[in-house]
Amino acid sequence: ERVRALAPTLPPLIPGVGAQGGGAVATVKAGWRLDAPIIVNSSRAVLYASSGEDFADAARREAMKTRDILEAAKA
């Protein structure tokens, strides 16, 4: 709330969603607004999606899964 009061339309960077345990749905419900979106960081889940040769595909799937969860939470 304090950040929104200081910079009401600036999109805040929200770290820790995904592998670090931050809830994507709770994050969207608490911070997303149509006039001031949020930037959600979920890099660990993407970076460590696979250690094999399928890394690119696994990372893409993880990023898309997170995106889909965030989009559904906005509805």
In short:
The chain is built from four helices and two strands.
- Indicate the radius of gyration in whole angstroms: 14 Å
Largest sheet: 2 strands, parallel
H-E string:
HEHEHH
Number of domains: 1
End-to-end C-alpha gap: 21 Å
- Anisotropy-based shape: elongated
- Tally of individual helices: 4
Given as residue ranges, the uncertain stretches (5+ residues, pLDDT < 50) are none
Secondary structure class reads mainly alpha
How many E strands? 2
In round numbers, the mean pLDDT is 85
Order of the strands making up the biggest sheet: 1-2
Proportion of residues in helical segments: 40-55%
Strand content: 5-15%
Outline the structure in words.
There is one protein chain. The chain is mainly α and 75 residues long. It has helices at 2-6, 24-31, 43-47, 55-74, and strands at 13-14, 39-40. The protein has one domain (2-74). It is built from four helices and two strands, in the order αβαβαα. The chain has a two-stranded parallel sheet with strand order 1-2. Helix 2 (24-31) links the parallel strand 1 (13-14) and strand 2. Helix 2 crosses helix 4 (55-74).
Feature tags:
75 residues; mainly alpha
Topology:
Elements: H1 2-6, E1 13-14, H2 24-31, E2 39-40, H3 43-47, H4 55-74
Parallel strand pairs: 1-2
